[in-house]
Specification:
eight-stranded parallel sheet, alpha/beta
């Protein structure tokens, strides 16, 4: 185990910030809600918080800050002055101030930013004003300094916190007119919505703190913070971690990664808690860790290893260095690890070498294989079978040892389980994904690419999903031709109000599972709205019109339910994506009189929104009738190409 950890430690690519991030960035300023450098360009501060200084004083020194800067790639540290506990600042001000200033002085000498954190949970107006008067007089001339005037208010109202903060801010601004000031909000920095309703006015370079612990705080806190940001409230994540809010308990890696993705998208600055060696999950060091840096990987806890790895994904200005780009319905467990869930979900990266090994695993509640499609340098290579059992390294052969662009796309759908991708051992090269238009394809088995690919096994042989190839379904084929990115939200057999052989009372329908990342009714994970498509294509109705298997009794088609569900589904899509163009499709598998009815009902859905002026008008596209040649009366690859050729010129008009 020690040899493995040592190898991992040596293999991690360290991106050095150089000697002085502060010299590069300069005086911080706030422009709108964005933290910016001295020239007004956006910047992000990323780093770690020392634990309470009264309990972990041995880490408050320049040598540790030097190590955090050079080895962990921080451009900011947070020095947390314990206030209320026994032995903390209120009881021993001189001793604690000496410890704190050791860290502040060390950060200034190392050229990193430092948060002077009044780490209190209760209001102490006189003591706080006296403290910040001293700090701002002594350190206000340094661009390194950020003041955090109240760590985590607990039961105080926002009005109380606001009044306190305004007094402390006046004290600081007498001595320091420019450096950033951070103000906490009630309920452990969760109630940023209260700040939104009544912010402090007339103070420049003022930001508000939000704290999250991924094991406790979910999407609701991101949504609340998004609303505040959209209302013009500047936010700094001055404390965060991946476990429960107690600082202990289990990690929630998928949720932690969602927070990181969100902070990257929002260009938010963040600090992880904490550089300490207490026996709890949030501590990043073990007792073996030196008091003067030079920590080995064996001296780090799980939180320390992950935090250090996260920090290596940013440059000196806090800009994200992308190595692995994930698309579609994916659950990221780390920046280089994820579950590919939905059909057409993918990971892409760039690397060098004639032979490239990727670590993949088929994951489900029972043991079975999956399929993944391979694209190298923009050329489709084929599918490979991801065997059941433990993760394996799969070799991809290229024509030369130069740089290659690799894209792995899940060929099978969500109901077949998931493909676990682990890029830890891939020497990926930083790259920037192309900025493109985005299309979401919502549908059933046709959109999944079910039964379209007989290149490995003919119809009727193997498992029912062995002919699946979402990469070659009409949606992805159309998107690639249009130079667009794509996301598939589709499930075989599902409909708008009923499914192929069942009614809604017997089985969930597509609108029921759409908001679940895993496209099932288990409520496992929310499907976030980071992906804002330019166009949403809906192809649902084939299964609603179906007569089923011909054995089970089937109720007559109910047009009112179909139209009603369709309208409600579109309303939900519009709420999720208020600016997107929605296009309704008929089905190439529905012909004759049924197809005429199908088009008629789509027009009735469209007419419902004819007076809507808030969203782009609903459009309808009609496929030409066809006799599909794939497995189970589904389109094959050639049929998908024909469908794509029909769609491309129509969609092109809306993607200009």
């Amino acid at each position: 185990m020690k040899k493995i950890l040592a190898f991992i430690f040596l293999s991690i690519c360290i991106i050095s910030f150089g000697k002085n991030p502060v010299k590069e960035i300069g005086n911080l300023q706030l422009i709108g809600t964005q933290l910016s450098d001295s020239k007004g360009k956006p910047v992000r501060l990323v780093g770690t918080s020392f634990g309470w200084n009264n309990w972990h004083p041995r880490f408050y020194n320049q040598k540790n800050i030097h190590w955090l800067k050079e080895d962990w790639n921080v451009n900011i540290v947070r020095a947390s002055l314990g206030i209320e506990p026994e032995g903390a600042y209120l009881q021993k001000p001189t001793e604690n101030l000496k410890t704190l200033e050791s860290a502040i002085d060390g950060a200034i000498k190392e050229g990193v930013y430092v948060i002077i954190d009044w780490h209190a949970h209760k209001i102490h107006p006189k003591e706080a004003k006296d403290f910040f008067d001293k700090m701002s007089k002594k350190y206000g001339k340094y661009p390194n300094v950020v003041y955090e005037v109240f760590n985590e208010p607990e039961k105080q109202s926002w009005e109380e916190v606001k009044s306190y903060a305004e007094d402390v801010i006046k004290t600081i601004r007498k001595n320091d007119p420019d450096n950033i000031i951070l103000v906490g909000c009630p309920e452990w920095d969760q109630r940023i919505d209260l700040v939104q309703k009544n912010p402090i006015k007339g103070v420049k370079n003022l930001m508000y703190t939000v704290h999250f612990y991924a094991g406790t705080h979910g999407k609701w806190l991101r949504d609340r913070t998004d609303e505040a940001l959209n209302a013009g409230i500047p936010v700094f994540i001055s404390e965060s971690a991946g476990m429960e809010a107690t600082g202990d308990g289990k990690f929630d890696y998928p949720e932690w990664q969602k927070y990181y993705d969100w902070m990257i998208k929002r260009n938010l600055s963040w600090i992880t808690w904490s550089v300490s060696d207490k026996k709890e999950t949030c501590s990043m060091l073990l007792p073996t860790a030196s008091s003067e840096g030079n920590w080995k990987l064996l001296d780090l806890t799980e939180s320390g290893i992950k935090t250090r790895d996260y920090l290596h994904q940013f440059d000196s200005r806090g800009q994200y260095i992308n190595k692995f780009n994930f698309g579609g319905r994916v659950e990221k467990n780390f920046y280089n690890k994820a579950l590919l869930i939905g059909p057409g979900s993918y990971v892409e990266f760039e690397t060098e070498g004639k032979t490239i090994e990727v670590n993949l695993k088929s994951v489900d509640t029972y043991s079975h294989h999956n399929w993944i499609s391979i694209e190298i340098d923009g050329k489709y290579i084929g599918r490979i079978k991801i065997d059941a059992g433990d993760a394996k390294n799969y070799k991809l052969e290229t024509s030369s040892p130069v740089k290659h662009h690799i894209k792995l796309t899940k060929a099978t759908e969500a109901s077949n389980g998931y493909i676990e991708f682990d890029g830890s051992n891939i020497n990926a090269i930083p790259f920037t994904p192309k900025s493109t238009k985005k299309i979401e394809f919502i549908g059933d088995s046709i959109t999944c690419g079910m039964g379209n690919d007989e290149s490995v096994l003919p119809c009727g042989q193997g498992e029912w999903y062995d002919q699946h190839n979402a990469y070659l379904a009409y949606g992805p084929v159309s998107a690639r031709a249009l130079g667009a990115d794509y996301l598939l939200s589709s499930v075989s057999g599902y409909g708008m109000y009923r499914n192929w052989n069942t009614e809604k009372s017997e089985e969930t329908i597509l609108p029921d599972v759409y908001n679940n990342l895993f496209l099932n009714g288990n409520g496992k994970a929310d499907f976030d709205n980071f992906y804002q498509p330019d166009l949403v294509s809906i192809c649902l109705g084939t299964n609603d019109f179906s007569d089923g298997d011909g054995k089970k009794a089937r109720l007559p088609f109910d047009k009112d339910k179909y139209i009603g569900n369709y309208i409600e589904f579109i309303k939900m899509i519009q709420k999720r994506y208020p600016k997107t163009q929605i296009i309704l499709l008929n089905s190439p598998m529905v012909n004759g009189e049924k197809n005429k009815q199908f088009i008629s009902y789509l027009n009735q859905v469209k007419d419902f929104f004819k007076n809507d002026t808030k969203h782009p008008p609903i459009e309808i596209f009609e496929f030409k009738e066809m006799t599909p040649k794939g497995c189970g009366y589904h389109p094959n690859i050639n049929d998908d190409k024909i469908m794509a050729d029909q769609l491309i010129p129509f969609y092109q008009k809306f993607l200009k």
